[in-house]
Predict the 3D structure of the following.
Amino acid sequence: MPVQSRLASDRRCATVFAIMLLLIGCESNAGPATQDVTRLSGMAQPSRIPFPDSTTTGTHGALTVFSGPPVFRTANAVIENVEIRASSVQVAADNITFRNVKFVYTGGVDESLL
Amino acid sequence: MIGIYPTVRGTRFEDCEIDGQNQTARAITGPSDVEVRRCDIHNTGNGVEVQNSFVVEDSYLHDIYTPPGLNWHADGIQARDASVNDITIRRNTILLTGPETGAIHIIGKADSTSENIVVEDNLLGGRFLHCLCGRGHGAELPGDQ
């Protein structure tokens, strides 16, 4: 086959291949934002779960307004089921757990670290 | 907003919401050994800013924000230390609002070593994943969209 013809043929093949790749890419990006968990769990059948959103994260149930100073100095404490409205919350002891807590910032523009 | 003292270890956030009201540059900031799970963190500068050794899983970080005229370089999750190690960021949704720096920003010194950094199965929207970790091994970035 002449060089010119071979080049044209190669170009056609490359174009077809690129289009196939595009189509495969479009297919894999279709549908809602989900993740394939088969790789995580080793399940045989594909199973897709949604990525986290406001329905799967954050607080749930009734919360009590936290009234003390938002400085936590007791090691191993668990603070739970409260709403803390503050301009600064300080964690000053080891192994503190905040569980089902809503924090709402109440100050002005703040760039400080603590 | 939530500051963890430099010597403190073992802080956990589970099923929490943090609303920065578009006013605070950092929702959670601390030194190391921090875990964040199933949390909704929004309308803040950096969502989670920890120097080293932390886990963020199954969380929703969105509306990462910088007020007009300020230069916060806000990120969804930021790790920044001389040497960044032992970081797991898995199964999160991280959405920026526009001009912020990155959904995930991990940076160490070029001449440092970094180990055990796993970033996988996250949905990142807005801008980029930056991982500038110097020398090292054990970094994995599979499954992110």
Notes: The mean pLDDT of chain B is 86. Chain B has one domain: 2-137. Chain B touches chain A at residues 1-5, 8-21, 23-27, 29-30, 38-40, 44-45, 58-60, 67, 70, 72, 91-93, 121-123, 143, 145 (CB under 8 Å). Residues 60 and 93 of chain B are 5 Å apart (CA to CA).
